[in-house]
Specification:
By secondary structure, the protein is mainly alpha-helical. It is built from nine helices and no strands.
Length: about 220
Amino acid sequence: MEEGVVVDTKRRRDPEARPQQILEAAFHEFAEHGLAGARLDDIAKRAAVAKGTIYLYFPTKEALFREMVRTTIVAALEMAELHREETQSLSASAQIRAVASGYWARLRTEPFQVVHRLVLADLPRFPDLMQFYADEVIVRGRRLFGGIVSRGISTGEFRTVDPESAARMLSALAITHSQWCSKRQHFPALMKHSDEEIRDEVIDFYLHALRPDASVSVPAL
């Protein structure tokens, strides 16, 4: 190599690595500016590729977001579905605890935190992406946990409830608490507890609500 020549190693990177390189750059741009505010020019600069290179893999920002969701949350759901199959021999309660623990771990990752913020802040302005997220993530997640709840109901381990509603309740509890944990400095009560302790509190509360004796009516005041 000639003296004084500087090689841009990012541009010389294997072309097969470019889609991931672009996705990582988009992830940071979306995290900083939101889906609406991010620009493909800035994503290209951050990825150290020409803007035209992005179009070879992702024709729009929306396509980038879809791939981000697929490689983070959808991939996590696929792992959870596999975990469900591997734990079929457990009781429904033990299976929920096992699958929900893995789900919690993924909720606490930075990629999920960023995508979830985008879903809440930006997707209402992108109806097609909102529908994509609902189909690929929300419906699939409810089907995952709803199936376990249905099995617990059939064996008498859980009281009779609507499985889809029960799955929605678990998702709401887990996502809300994971968001609070990411902002512990604003919630002093959480400072005393580790992620694992809060996770176990959520799962214990949820399983208690599904117990057959939890359906006992409470007299009206």
